Amino acid sequence: MVSPQSELSVALWRGGKDGVYQTYQVPTRTNQTILDVVTWIQRNLDPTLSYRFACRVGMCGSCAMTVNGRPRWTCRTHVSKVASAGRLEIGPLENLPVIKDLTADMRPFFEKWQRAKGVFSPSKTRDDAIEEIKPDTPARIAADKAIECINCGVCYAACDTVRWNPDYLGPAALNRAWSLVNDVRDAGNTARLKAISADGGCHACHSHQSCQQLCPQTLNPTASISGLKRCATHAYLQGEIKP
């Protein structure tokens, strides 16, 4: 069904780092999403357009792009909510290298996850009994608040500290570290706290909370980072880690 406004003027980023915005005219539809718009352009106007998506229902996060200056999941963002006077500007996620058009290179994002020791380090073997974790303990509650991250990169693209400091690990990697710090089954906290308290770690966060404001999963990485700051400081005072 066509909406009362028959066309959208859509400026899309084309090319790599030194690309430009190119404008397309796209018919509007009821309940149209940003991903619908990008897909229509690729299928009807320019098959060379590059972009990334998978599930289309807000489960994978791979369709994240910059829409009118803000990082968003394009599959869940309706045109009616963000279009201004029938105009849209769609680009790749910021703070990441551009591969081509709307496709950003996520390698720096995941490499920082590795630097933050965001991998579970088991404290037991498969031969040990499964440990019972009570859901109402403070540590489990803290971990639960952080575990729903799906690595879409929206918080990373929104983070001004990442923009100013390329070495900063970023909200998602530090949020993951916080979830593991609070997992009593994990045995890697000494190395993890040392990693996240080094240059570019949790103490570089300026607490702007743009990550919390724009997270599609309504997580609060800033709160997680604050928890890491407290844990790292305590570990330092106890002599568990050194500067």
Characterize the structure shown:
- By secondary structure, the protein is an alpha+beta fold.
- The protein has 2 domains: 103 residues, Beta-grasp domain (Ubiquitin-like (UB roll)); 131 residues, Orthogonal Bundle (Fumarate Reductase Iron-sulfur Protein, Chain B, domain 2), CATH 1.10.1060.10.
- Helices cover 34% and strands 17% of the residues.
- It has 10 helices and 7 strands.
- A 5-stranded mixed β-sheet has the order 2-1-5-3-4.
- A hairpin with a 5-residue loop joins strand 1 and strand 2.
- Helix 3 packs parallel to helix 7, helix 7 packs across helix 10 and helix 8 crosses helix 10.
- The radius of gyration is 21 Å and the shape is elongated.
- 38% of the residues are buried.
- The mean pLDDT is 94.
In short:
With 243 residues, the protein is of the alpha+beta class.
Helical fraction equals: 25-40%
Mean pLDDT over the residues: 94
Q: What structural class is derived from the secondary structure elements?
A: alpha+beta
CATH superfamily of the largest domain: Alpha-helical ferredoxin
Number of strands: 7
Note the main attributes of this structure:
243 residues, alpha+beta, Ubiquitin-like (UB roll), Fumarate Reductase Iron-sulfur Protein, Chain B, domain 2, 2 domains, 5-stranded mixed sheet, two-stranded antiparallel sheet, 7 strands, 34% helix
How is the topology of this model organized?
Blueprint lengths: L1 E13 L5 E10 L4 H11 L19 E4 L2 E4 L5 H4 L4 E5 L6 E3 L2 E2 L2 H9 L22 H7 L9 H5 L1 H5 L6 H11 L7 H8 L13 H5 L6 H17 L6
Parallel strand pairs: 1-5
Antiparallel strand pairs: 1-2, 3-4, 3-5, 6-7
Helix pairs in contact: 3-7, 7-8, 7-10, 8-10
